[in-house]
Design a protein that fits this description.
Layout lengths: L7 H34 L8 H21 L2 E5 L2 E9 L2 E8 L7 E4 L8 E2 L8
Antiparallel strand pairs: 1-2, 2-3, 3-4, 4-5
Amino acid sequence: MTERTFTLSEARALIPEVRVRIDAIVAARANLAELTFALRSGLPSHLGGKPEQKGYEARIDEALGWFTIQGIEVKSIAPVLVDFPAYLGRESVRLCLLEGEHELGWYHRTEIGFAGRRRLPGSGPRE
């Protein structure tokens, strides 16, 4: 199967739905962490028990599945980091969005990864 690539416009058009999915992951992740701690410690939790723990895991998996279907790469869930395969000119890049960011304003070369993250041309202050 060929990897989907996005134009900047296509990726930006998906950001509202991406943010909804990221928010769902963040909420489920926090509840899962708290509930898992309680279960391991033998403490009662207002979040429930084992069935609810499995439910939070399922919510995260469901959200991750949506990204896969769209062709968006999830690089991390704590914090949530997603990459849109794309090209800037002839260069293979990943347009990246980190949990808490509201707009798609960063990219990195595909072969370098997050450490090479740079602002997209015309997206905010220069570094």
